[in-house]
Specification:
The chain is α/β, with parallel strands linked by helices and 207 residues long. It has a single domain, classed as Rossmann fold. It is built from 6 helices and 15 strands. It has helices spanning 10-20, 26-44, 80-90, 137-148, 163-172, 200-205, and strands at 4-6, 50-56, 61-67, 71-77, 95-96, 98-103, 110-116, 125-129, 132-133, 153-157, 160-161, 178-180, 182-183, 186-187, 193-194. Strands 1, 4, 5, 6, 7, 8, 10 and 12 form an 8-stranded mixed beta sheet that branches. A 3-stranded parallel beta sheet has the order 9-11-13. Helix 1 (10-20) runs antiparallel to helix 2 and helix 2 crosses helix 3. The longest helix has 19 residues, at 26-44.
Length: 207
């Protein structure tokens, strides 16, 4: 099964707690989401391959390294789009695709309304991002679409995951690792994560 990695770091714990707080305003919520994503990308790319390059310093020629493979970010709209900013600060040359999915409020099933992905996904590290892994439906569908377009090295990044969503995702995509800042207790009857942080899209965009 694809492993679940809960990234445990004091700064991540502190920022996630502030993100959960219902009194955190929209501006700070957005800032925290970007910062948390950037912290977590360090873990996701820890095993990323490098290639040696030569550069000229102001004093002499020396060897260094650059990323050996392209990176593609695929946010799940709406809320995932804000997470890409945190990644792009660290990997500004990353390409970005978009997948729009909404969850039916009654059936909780995912419905795709938009898909635009870069070409040549097969040679890239593809990071699918969404703040929440709740029922797992949207994440499963997004990764399925990425694989359908040729993605092979795919990783899923979220802030908060529910055990139910993790199980659904691992059954559908056993080879895709999940990275989260926290594994929360459970889902409620409406498919929201408890304790969670509410609806990330609504808190980001004031809807």
């Amino acid at each position: 099964m694809g492993r679940l990695t809960v990234i445990d770091h004091p700064l991540i714990r502190a920022k996630l707690t502030k993100l959960r707080d219902r009194s955190t305003d929209r501006l700070l919520f957005r800032q925290l989401l970007e910062e948390l994503t950037a912290f977590m990308v360090y873990e996701i790319t820890r095993d990323f391959p490098l290639r040696e390059v030569e550069v000229e310093t102001p004093l002499e020629r020396t060897s260094g390294h650059e990323l050996a493979r392209p990176v593609v970010l695929v946010p799940i709209l709406r809320a995932g789009i804000i997470m890409t900013e945190g990644v792009l600060r660290l990997i500004p040359n990353a390409r970005v695709g978009h997948i729009g999915i909404y969850r039916d409020p009654v059936t909780l099933k995912p419905h795709v309304y938009y898909k635009k992905l870069p070409k040549n996904l097969r040679e890239a590290l593809v990071i699918v991002v969404d703040p929440m892994l709740a029922t797992g439906g949207s994440a499963v569908e997004a990764v399925r679409l990425v694989k359908e377009e040729g993605g092979e090295d795919v990783r899923f990044l979220c802030l908060v995951a529910a055990p139910e969503g993790v199980r659904v995702f691992q059954e559908a995509h056993p080879g895709v690792p999940i990275y989260a800042a926290a594994l929360d207790r459970e889902l409620n009857d409406h498919g929201y994560i408890l304790p969670g942080l509410g609806d990330a899209g609504d808190r980001l965009f004031g809807t």
